[in-house]
Design a protein that fits this description.
19% strand; 5 helices; alpha/beta
């Protein structure tokens, strides 16, 4: 059975690299880390993972990205995959977008950039706990 995945979405490669390091430190090889530079790329990755029967547990996404914004992305994800835990990690989102994401996509956590690594990992762990995943 394939390892479950955590997907990170941000249009800044340096942010994705930082997230990869933090996930590796916190979880080792427990989960597969997937990384996308846009919501459209993330949707392609999600489709591939679903086809390969990989459980996507958590998505960490920026809000301000080219193409589709994070709130639209999470609302779409929630409609198709309501079990996925969503975390918004951004310095740009307005209060209205965050509220919309909470009400329409059951946003688990919002963390401003620059983020605190321990807060991010704690948000991921608390989301995983909702899924009854033992860490």
């Amino acid at each position: 059975m394939p390892k479950p995945a955590i997907l990170c979405v941000d249009d800044e490669v340096v942010v994705l690299e930082s997230l990869e390091i933090e996930l590796q430190k916190a979880f080792g090889n427990t989960y597969v880390g997937e990384f996308a530079e846009s919501a459209d790329e993330a949707l392609e990755i999600i489709e591939e993972l679903v086809e390969d029967k990989v459980d996507i547990l958590v998505i960490v996404s920026d809000w301000l990205m080219p193409g589709m914004k994070g709130d639209e992305f999470f609302i779409l994800i929630h409609k198709n995959y309501p079990q996925i835990i969503t975390i918004m990690l951004t310095g740009q989102a307005d209060a209205e977008a965050i509220e919309r994401t909470i009400s329409q996509a059951k946003l688990h956590a919002y963390l401003p950039k620059p983020w605190n690594n321990s807060e991010l990992i704690e948000a991921i762990k608390s989301g995983l706990a909702k899924l009854s995943i033992n860490l």
